[in-house]
Amino acid sequence: MRTEKPRHILIRADASALIGTGHVMRCMVLAQHLTVLGCQVHFICRNLPGNLNDYIAAHGYGITVLPDNAESVTWQDDVANIITQHAHADGVIVDHYQLGKEWESAISTHFACPLLAIDDMNRPHQSDLILDQNLWPAGNPRYLNSPGTHLIGPEYALLRPSFAALREQHLPRENQLLVCFGGSDPTGECEKFLRAVQEMPALPFTIILIAGRANLRYPQLQAIAENSDVLLYAHRDDFEQLLATSHYMIGASGSSNWERLCLNTPASVVCVADNQRDTSEHLANLGAIRYLGEAQRLNSADYYAELTWLIQHWTALPTLSPITIDGNGAIITANSFFRILTC
Q1: Are residues 49 and 152 in the same domain?
Q2: Which residues are catalytic?
Q3: Keyword Ligase on this protein (predicted)?
Q4: Residue 153 shares a structural domain with residue 209
């Protein structure tokens, strides 16, 4: 039983319809493990369209909501907003492409505490720990000019505990195709996919399409899907169960790559953000995914072609190269950060 005072951890991350939900969602996984270790976690997020602020609060975490002025605010403004509202922190975690080395230095100096930076863009950092959960080609050194310990690779991927549990169960696969382009689908892939399905003859499998909890186009997607056989949902709490039991998936790159590979679900993958391109191409070169390309270059005809290929190969899908991901990366990362906190 823990008797010491809980360590107070601040997490700075945003979610929106434009930037997606991945930063906040993976930080919530980390927060869960830090809570088990006796930490008290508090989120700091901007009030952006399509945010997850209510979702964070509903899971029992404290949250400070910053104004919706992300385009005009400077990193200095961001720091000032935080230090005027928080008198103390034992540790800080930042997962944000708009906040970098200068922000990290100012925050860690002010609070005199360790800082964990989550990134995948090989930017300079001023942190005690860097997490980059992507798989990079051998001989491609990362963060050479950044101090601290570096956790690099999908073995550190921040997956929910249910993924590791499902991986061990080896559940039978259902006759279904799972489709999801992230939590917000900023490039409109769901509509392109639905338009492709409209042109298809009868399909030999069930399609489950998850639009994403921050997808602002969901009402329009409902109207398009109304007369189709596609099972459309804004969100499914049993997503990992669906992934573990689906025969195949079409979806976005990013953190979803590690979820699919953890559960050995083969997939056709779309790059929906510039920072996903290199990893997507590398996974394709390894034979771990079918890479469809960049979202802005795709249209409904491309999804029609992929569905046609899938129908032809449904009963005998080509074997994709496995990449072993045990799903315990969040535990490793949380323990690594906690050790720094307690030094």
Answers
A1: yes
A2: 23
A3: no
A4: no
Of the candidates 4, 86, 81, 92, the residue with the CA atom closest to the CA atom of residue 41: 92
What amino acid occupies position 51?
A: N
In a domain, 322, yes or no: no
Domain encompassing residue 209: 162-313
Please indicate if the annotation marks 160 as binding a ligand. Answer: yes
Buried b (16+ CB within 10 A) or exposed e, 103-140: bbebbbeebebbbbbbbbebeebbbbbbbbbbbbeeee
Distance CA 210, CA 138 (A): 34
